[in-house]
Amino acid sequence: MSLTTDHSRAEVDGAHSHGPQSDGAVIPQSDRAERATSFDVADFAVPNGREEEWRFTPIKKLARIFAAEGSSAHLGWTTELPAGVTVEEISAAEARDKSVFAPGDRTSAAATSLSEGAILITIPDEFSAADPVIVDLAGAGEDVVWGQILVQVGANAQASVVLTHSGTATYSAYVSVDVADGANLTFVSVQDWDATAIHLAENALRVAKDATLKHVVMTFGGEIVRIGVNAQLVGEGANLELIGAYFTDAGQHQEHRLFVDHAVPRARSRATYKGALQGEGAHSVWVGDVLIRAVAEGTDTYELNRNLLLTEGARADSVPNLEIETGEIEGAGHASATGRFDDEQLFYLQARGIPEAEARRLVVHGFFAELVREIGIPSIEARLLESIEAELAVAVGKSTGDDQQ
Fold it and tell me: Ranges for the SUF system FeS cluster assembly SufBD core domain (predicted)?
């Protein structure tokens, strides 16, 4: 069964819309801009699964994180730094002062209040380098780890920052990215965990006047991965690109939630996320919320989510939402689709002598490759394409096996 919603970019006069559930029903949604935020974990109740923001998540498996108890466990980390960039450990109090805004849920508040400190990456004004800043984070146990990472990008700087996650851990993190006037940052977060890892994170983003932020999330591993992206455009001419890809295997839950707050006039945002799912119990969730405030005249925004089901037993939930408080905009829209292999594409390839297994691999590779190549960091693109090929080696075997039964 294929489920599709497609809303073309158009000028909307006073519209207020919410995306459908996977069964087509409309979801009541409170204004995300009005939700509580706090650095104090006590300000958030333990989720029970009936809350809108937690209703898709397997919360019974997150009891240790929701308990919000202190832990001395850490991830190991190494860095590769271009000259001029600094990485240092700072106190939790300093991190609170430098964060772009307060966390919006219990797990990210716990990360800020229970971590013993934070990693601060500082990119100075006018900085420019071809090589990315790379921070490799690795887990070596299942103890709960609380983490904070802050990225501060100076005015008119040009830089790339890559976070990678591997090994296993039960990890809750708060990541703050602050992009100053005129700066251009590509920020990449790669979740390539072992099968038993749990990773919850809030990425808080602030984009200033005439600045550009390309924020990339690539999720392949982990039992449960839930990444929230909360972005605010605070200066005219701000430009935000949200790019994501995920490959969800049997028994995995991968959830990506976006909130983009257009708080000023004449800013632009784009969100493009693609996922492939295979195996019994594979579950992906994508929620995209965009708020265009009354003052945000001239806004231009669009969000897209595509999901490809490779086998039976997989489920993708896709929920796009728009909240529009002014009709004086350039454009606003969203599109969402979930379906199986395109039979016409497979027939076209097989008719030219390409075996079925290779034809399937080529279709899925093409589904992701164009998106990955938008990152603009060749070494990272190559690494991600290798991860996708590793997933495809399993996916193609399962798909052809199912077809032959």
Answer: 142-367
